[in-house]
Design brief:
mainly alpha, MetI-like fold, 13 helices, 1% strand
């Protein structure tokens, strides 16, 4: 009887989870196997045709490459920068206002951050694009160049998202017991050995959590890229999320966009599972 009462206490949460998560996910899967084009009044079950068309599309192949490159570059830079800042500012004597400055980009909405960096990188009147970069020998308009545009969105994304990873690492560093460091120092360990033998192992869970959030966030990044480049020039910065938006709201193919959404859901789940199994379940 007690177990039954516990179940009823959990029922509202399970119901809310089903409404918010399970129903939209199921509806997305149903749409992905449906021929649903706004300009075509007939809506019918189409099997795997949407997936077949998607996988044969050159736009999809290029979007996968752009998304993978964007994910790898931004994640590496974020990990290095966030870890370095956390190590530098984790001490008890570090100024609090510097931490506040580092965290400040986190409160800026992605749309505002996109507009800001688009203006900064503007080749005609932007502070970076028109004045700083030409003075160091870079005369190319970054946002008008395929490689420059990709670099620009990576820089903007790193600036915008690093503070969240920094907070995770900072909390993990401050939670490490000081006894561990004192013990290894008594054995004559150097600063590098302290970092390798104490800090990194104790930070494993925090790194995994940060990577999980980063993978999910990067695969779904839309606002910042849309505001800065709209996927251009050409399709050089068109990620999977932008391709899905264009498929649904420019091509009016809801079934094809849903198929892409299912693919992104599967890829995100696989990536999260790999990170979890590879790192979090390793013996300490």
């Amino acid at each position: 009887m007690l177990q039954d009462w516990r179940f009823w206490f959990l029922a509202p949460m399970v119901l809310a989870l089903g409404i918010v998560v399970l129903f939209p996910s199921g509806y997305l899967v149903w749409m992905s196997v449906t021929h649903w084009i706004v300009t075509d009044p007939s809506v019918y079950f189409d099997g795997v045709q949407n997936f077949t068309t998607l996988f044969k599309s050159a736009s999809f192949a290029q979007a996968v490459q752009v998304t993978a490159l964007y994910l790898v570059l931004s994640t590496i830079l974020m990990l290095a920068l966030a870890f370095g800042l956390a190590l530098a500012l984790s001490g008890p004597g570090s100024p609090g206002f510097i931490r506040a400055i580092v965290v400040m980009p986190l409160v800026i909405p992605p749309v505002v951050a996109g507009f800001t960096w688009r203006f900064l990188m503007n080749g005609e009147m932007g502070f970076l694009g028109a004045f700083v970069l030409p003075n160091v020998g870079i005369t190319t308009n970054m946002l008008a160049n395929p490689t420059g545009a990709l670099i620009s969105i990576v820089i903007a994304d790193v600036w915008s998202r690093t503070p969240f990873m920094f907070l995770i690492f900072l909390a993990a560093l401050q939670a490490i017991p000081r006894d561990h460091y004192e013990a290894i120092r008594l054995d004559g360990a150097t600063a590098l050995q302290e970092f390798w033998l104490v800090t990194l192992p104790m930070m494993r869970s925090a790194v995994v959590i940060a990577l999980l959030f980063r993978v999910i966030d990067a695969l779904n990044t839309f606002e910042l890229i849309y505001v800065m480049t709209k996927g251009g020039p050409g399709r050089s910065t068109q990620t999977l999320s932008l391709l899905g938006w264009k498929t649904a709201f420019q091509g009016f193919d809801f079934g094809g966009a849903a198929a892409l959404g299912v693919v992104m859901l599967v890829v995100t789940t696989i990536c999260a599972s790999i990170v979890y199994r590879r790192f979090l379940r390793m013996p300490s």
